[in-house]
């Protein structure tokens, strides 16, 4: 079953240095969807190990299975427009509407 449009939860504002968790979920897809987060239209990298992630100065953890995007300490650089895409290899992937977070 193709995924439906996911529900995204993105805070509209956050204080610098706080923990922020965004979530993305859809329930129709079978097999279960994987989730990809985007910031300003660019796919966010999944953190794997320490090497490349540290070089890219990645300050978040993205879980493609649960759809969560977790910032341990947000910075002004994390301000932007976020959306997520659900896909399970069946039908077309579905995106939620873009939401802006101001840090």
How do the helices and strands line up, and which of them pair or pack?
Layout: E1 7-9, E2 20-25, E3 34-39, E4 42-43, H1 51-55, E5 60-63, E6 68-71, E7 80-87, E8 94-95, E9 99-101
Antiparallel strand pairs: 1-2, 2-6, 3-4, 3-7, 5-6, 7-8, 7-9
Protein architecture, described:
This is JAM2 protein. Belongs to the immunoglobulin superfamily. The protein is mostly beta strands. It has one domain (5-99): Immunoglobulin-like (Sandwich), CATH 2.60.40. Helices cover 5% and strands 37% of the residues. The strands form 2 sheets. Strands 3, 4, 7, 8 and 9 form a 5-stranded antiparallel beta sheet that branches. Strands 1-2-6-5 form a 4-stranded antiparallel beta sheet, with no helix packed on it. A hairpin with a 4-residue loop joins strand 5 and strand 6 (68-71). The N and C termini lie far apart (37 Å). 22% of the residues are buried.
- Could you name the ranges where pLDDT drops below 50 across 5 or more consecutive residues? none
The helix-and-strand class reads: mainly beta
Query: Sheet with the most strands?
Result: 5 strands, antiparallel
Would you identify the CATH architecture? Answer: Sandwich
Separation, N- and C-terminal Cα atoms? 37 Å
Mass-distribution shape: elongated
CATH class: Mainly Beta
CATH homologous superfamily label:
Immunoglobulins
Number of domains: 1
Q: Examine the coordinates and then state which fold CATH places here, giving the name of the CATH topology.
A: Immunoglobulin-like
Query: Residue share in helices?
Result: under 10%
Hey, roughly how much beta strand do the residues contain? 35-45%
Number of E-state strands: 9
Instruction: Note the run of SSEs as H and E.
Output: EEEEHEEEEE
Tally of helical runs: 1
Return Rg in Å.
14 Å
Give the overall pLDDT as a whole number. Answer: 91
């Amino acid at each position: 079953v193709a995924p439906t449009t996911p529900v995204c939860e993105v805070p509209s504002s956050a204080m610098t240095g706080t923990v922020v968790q965004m979530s993305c979920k859809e329930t129709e897809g079978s097999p279960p969807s994987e989730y990809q987060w985007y910031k300003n239209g660019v796919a966010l990298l999944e953190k794997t190990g320490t090497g490349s992630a540290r070089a890219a100065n990645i300050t978040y953890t993205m879980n493609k299975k649960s759809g969560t995007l977790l910032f341990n300490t947000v910075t002004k650089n994390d301000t932007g427009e976020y959306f997520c895409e659900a896909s399970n290899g069946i039908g077309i992937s579905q995106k939620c509407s873009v939401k802006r977070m101001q840090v």
